[in-house]
Amino acid sequence: MTPTEPTDSTPTEPNPTDQTEADPTAEAEVAFERELLEAQWLLPTLGPGVTGTGVAMEAVIRGLEVLARQRVEEHLDRPGAVRAVRFPPVNGRSMLERTDYVASFPQLLGTIDVFTGDTKAHRRLLADREAGLPWDGHLHTSDYALVPAACHPLYAWLSMTGNTAPAHGEPNGDGGGQPETRAVVDGTVWALTGDCFRNEPSPDPMRLVSFRMLEFVLLGTPEQALAHRGAMLELGSQLLRDLGLTVSVEGANDPFFGRAGVMLAKGQRAAELKFEITTQVYAGRDTAIASGNCHEEHFGAEFGLATDDGAVAHSACFGFGLERIALALARRHGTDLTTWPARTRDLLGLEQA
Ligand code: ATP
Ligand code: MG
Ligand code: ZN
Fold this sequence. Notes:
A hairpin with a 2-residue loop joins strand 12 and strand 13. The strands form four sheets. A seven-stranded mixed β-sheet has the order 3-9-10-15-13-12-11. Helix 2 crosses helix 7 and helix 2 packs across helix 10. By secondary structure, the protein is α+β, with helices and mostly antiparallel strands. Magnesium ion (MG) binds next to loops.
């Protein structure tokens, strides 16, 4: 999404006046998807926007992960400066409240329904199914939800680490309440690849419902967070250029929901909190393939994270969209890896692929 384009993350009504006019971008999206399916880069499954990745695409994604982690380690130049962790695609539903996702992006979230009934309730469910009726009414929303951004579970985990300090300016509570402490963060760069869910099905293979994000996340002082975001945008752009893509870095905003969201988006852009690395997969339209975000105190305050002087931690994350980068490379170099430039193959360790 370029800064000037409207978001296409919510389904829009077809415009009746458009019926005779072919949309060249939509045609290009459909043609690209067909090419990817034919080459078995994408493996279709049952849901729109849900695909598996074939042998070649998976080799590219694996290469990207290794290359990006190596480059970040080289950049930090301190042994152990990057710490790799992994979280599953499911988290507690309360995370959607604690991160404000339910307030900001209700159109994108997904919770998980479960069946907890007895045999009688199951028989009623089966009767509906046999009658061809919807059976999902027999389920109810569980305490679990799908993770929409790879970094979210990290904040929850860090808040539970034992290394705590008194919160800045607040005395330690003693008379019965929980001590007012915050978990200490120290500028470590956390590396994590996470499966993300966003309810934004689209004919565009660049916009999936379930996709992987490789994130490099730092929690620390405001200066550390800002410097991390800047360095990652630079490192990320260089890496993508080295692979043969033409990219640019643009100020951006998230698709905050509703009327209030317009103001939030403007504020985010004015404060320069989000930048995207974009490339032209379709002529005349930029697609974000990575983004660098500063959250200021947003997560630090909610999850009780502090620097060692007790001040609320700032956070910044940089995310590579792994499928989007692989597909942008397929668009640039074709789906046959053997014909890719030697340098690209070498950087991605594709000699065996
Ligand atoms: P867009 O503006 O295209 O909706 P975004 O701002 O929502 O992207 P971020 O939330 O910054 O994206 O996520 C980080 C990266 O994850 C993006 O730069 C992109 O590469 C990738 N990404 C985001 N949404 C999708 C999606 N629906 N399908 C595939 N990759 C995605
Ligand atoms: Mg989006
Ligand atoms: Zn993030």
